[in-house]
Specification:
This protein is mainly beta. The protein is 6% helix and 37% strand. The radius of gyration is 31 Å and the shape is flat. InterPro entries: Glycoprotein.
Length: 667
């Protein structure tokens, strides 16, 4: 029978919460102390561990309470659910057992420690996913933790959720792991209803009354909800691959746990002849290796849109104005990672509107940079997924003119431009400035080339909204330092951009300049060096113009990039008296460093950085004569410093605003 569950209102606001695997304890009567500040509550989930074994493991408190783990596991007073009743501990406590260490290592259960906070009350509850059960969650604001120690399913520790019933004025969020004292970081939930894309769109915060059956392969996860809802949960695995949705307006979920191999997952979309238009989207969160990739997409018989990404611990969302007959999810190089995808689709009523779709694009704030090699050949219509009006620019320096002449951009208002024509829209004799080709309607790219011929293309097409064309930069603050002398430098980027205010000029050429071994032509100057992805680590030395007048001043850098976790970039300022250095793992926001010294040379190198990239702007500024020798350390040992602030310059050049955007990349 199904009865509404009675959720006991015990006080349990997590402050120093711990989830401990039983196999980590020691046997042979060792006292394994519980490292928590009393009072606290204890919960045990040990579905697959033998009862006789659990009866030999004891929790003993200083005030002489003694509970076996079998007793703790069975603290489930309700017949229809496996809600665990907390065991309160008011003093210090320890776990002990006469089992051998080898027997303990074979345990599969877990113990959850929840610190009680008497100052605050939170409706917190723990459910053991040890059997199929129906949860009727009352119309309240609550947090529910689910523990799954079931090792008898294949794969293990899977929880399947089905028969979803939720009122439209309620909300629910699923999170991986256990709750903590701190508020959850924004956009880190793995599933929600209403669905909450991170980007503002016309379907932001969308409630779905229909939720597809799904599984979570997690030993611990929790929900935060407000309002009433119910669902079934069972300790079993449900494979969504090959299934079909029961509606064209619905949401569902798929996850790949760590150590599971990459696979291709397809879900058929319910057919409804009355629903011909709509939106398909996804929220993706997770952690994959640097070279890992997750792709979510939707396809029909002749159209396809997809979004490849490397997921992070914050949601990345994607949508397309299209409902096909199949969605697909796959990953590459992801065996060591995990990811969570919430997909959704919302069908509109029948409309006499042609829904157009882009093939293999990446959306970046309505601006898109698309590699030509990602299009399909053989007269396939690769629709441009952008809201008209927009402008088109083509760069294809190394592609053959005869090949480009066979690729066409065709608009709904019957304009037809070959990519050779688009490439050559350069009306100025002395520069390569590209004249935009305006598109006022929907459009697609098509070619009679084979797919193999298209894959060998090296050019790119940039889609820019007309809003971007009308934007202009603002003048910079006049308090920042200006350098009239800028060293020659190179950028190894397929795309970069500048924002400027006022007059300036420079030469630019499609060639490489190696800064290593070069010398500055002044001691008041700024320059730049970058390491591209897949370039091996190297040592770069730049000599500073000879300082014959003992001028003193500042030397420093701004650094930004994206590096492996164990990667490191080192910047050193060297002189005859010694050296000062600073190490970083570059991030996507500037990190700066400065020292009050002008040296003989600067030195830049990296370690474990082949898969990463970084960008360094160095600078030095000389002041008046000073008859004091260098303040460098006199020993050979490097002087490490993390000092910031004094003398650190916010640079007007900032590598031409160093807003390089690092590179708009599309897979």
């Amino acid at each position: 029978m199904n009865f509404p569950i009675f959720l006991a209102f015990f006080i349990c606001l997590v402050s120093a919460q711990q989830l401990i695997d039983l196999k980590t304890f020691r046997g042979k009567n060792v006292r394994n102390s519980i490292n928590a500040h009393a009072p606290y509550d204890v919960f045990v989930s040990a579905t697959s561990d033998d009862a006789e074994i659990l009866a030999q493991i004891h929790l003993i408190t200083q005030d002489k309470q003694n509970q076996t783990f079998l007793q703790l596991k069975n603290r489930k007073p309700f017949l229809t659910t496996s809600q665990i009743q907390p065991f309160p501990v008011q003093t210090t406590a320890y776990v002990t057992t006469n089992l051998t260490d080898e027997q303990v290592k074979n345990l599969t259960g877990m113990i959850f420690i929840c610190t009680t906070n008497q100052q605050q009350i939170n409706n917190f509850h723990v459910i053991d996913v040890d059997k199929p059960q129906t949860l009727y969650l009352p119309n309240e604001n609550q947090t529910v933790l689910f523990l799954n120690s079931n090792m008898d399913s294949s794969p293990v520790q899977y929880s399947t959720i089905s028969s979803w019933n939720q009122s439209s004025n309620s909300s629910i969020y699923f999170y991986k792991g256990i709750p903590t004292d701190l508020p959850e970081k924004d956009n880190t939930f793995i599933f929600s209803n209403p669905v909450s894309p991170t980007r503002a769109t016309d379907h932001t915060i969308e409630f779905f009354s229909n939720v597809q059956k799904f599984s979570l392969g997690l030993g611990a996860f929790y929900i935060k909800y407000y309002g009433s809802l119910s669902f079934n949960i069972a300790p079993e695995y449900y494979d969504v691959n090959g299934t079909s949705t029961n509606s064209t307006t619905t949401t569902g979920f798929y996850m790949k746990p760590k150590s599971q191999k990459d696979r291709n997952v397809t879900i058929q979309i319910a057919q409804n002849s009355k629903d011909v238009g709509g939106v398909t989207g996804s929220n993706t969160v997770g952690t994959l290796p640097k070279n890992g990739k997750v792709t979510f997409g939707v396809r029909s018989a002749d159209l396809e849109a997809k979004n490849p990404m490397n997921p992070s611990d914050e949601i990345q969302d994607w949508t397309t104005n299209f409902i096909g007959n199949q969605i697909f999810i796959n990953s590459e190089n992801g065996t060591d990672g995990e990811f969570f995808v919430q997909y959704y689709m919302r069908a509109n009523q029948k409309m006499n509107v042609l829904i157009l779709l882009a093939f293999s694009i990446c959306l970046i704030s309505a601006q898109q940079l698309i590699d030509l090699k990602t299009f399909r050949g053989e007269n396939f219509k690769n629709f441009i997924s952008a809201h008209a009006p927009y402008d088109v620019f083509v760069s294809a320096t190394s592609d053959d003119a005869e090949v480009l002449a066979q690729i066409h951009l065709v608009t709904q208002d019957k304009q037809n431009q070959t990519f050779q024509q688009l490439k050559n829209r350069k009306p100025f004799l002395t520069t390569g400035q590209i004249l935009p080709f305006p598109v006022q309607t929907t459009a697609y790219v098509t070619t009679n080339l084979t797919d193999q011929q298209v894959k060998s293309l090296t050019g790119m097409i940039f889609i820019s909204t007309t809003n971007q064309q009308q934007m202009s930069p603002s003048p910079m603050d006049d308090t920042i330092a200006f350098f009239s002398n800028v060293q020659k430098f190179s950028l190894g980027l397929g795309a970069f951009y500048i924002k400027h205010f006022g007059d300036l000029s420079f030469n630019i050429a499609p060639e490489y300049y190696d800064a290593n071994g070069s010398s500055t032509n002044s001691i008041t100057t700024t320059g730049f060096y970058m390491k591209t992805k897949n370039q091996k680590d190297r040592n770069v030395t730049i000599f500073v113009a000879e300082n014959t007048e003992h001028i003193y001043g500042d030397t420093g850098i701004n650094i930004v990039g994206n590096f492996p976790q164990n990667g490191e970039v080192t910047f050193e300022v060297r002189n005859v008296g010694g050296k000062i250095k600073m190490d970083w793992n570059p991030k996507d926001e500037l990190q700066d460093f400065a020292t009050s010294e002008i040296a003989n040379l600067i030195f830049i190198n990296s370690e474990n950085g082949t898969d990463g990239e970084f960008f360094v702007q160095y600078y030095m500024r000389g002041f008046q004569r000073k008859h004091i020798l260098s303040t460098f350390a006199s020993t050979d040992a490097p002087v490490e410093t993390t000092t910031k602030g004094a003398g650190i310059l916010n640079l007007v050049i900032s590598i031409l605003a160093l807003v390089l955007c690092l590179e708009v990349s599309c897979d």
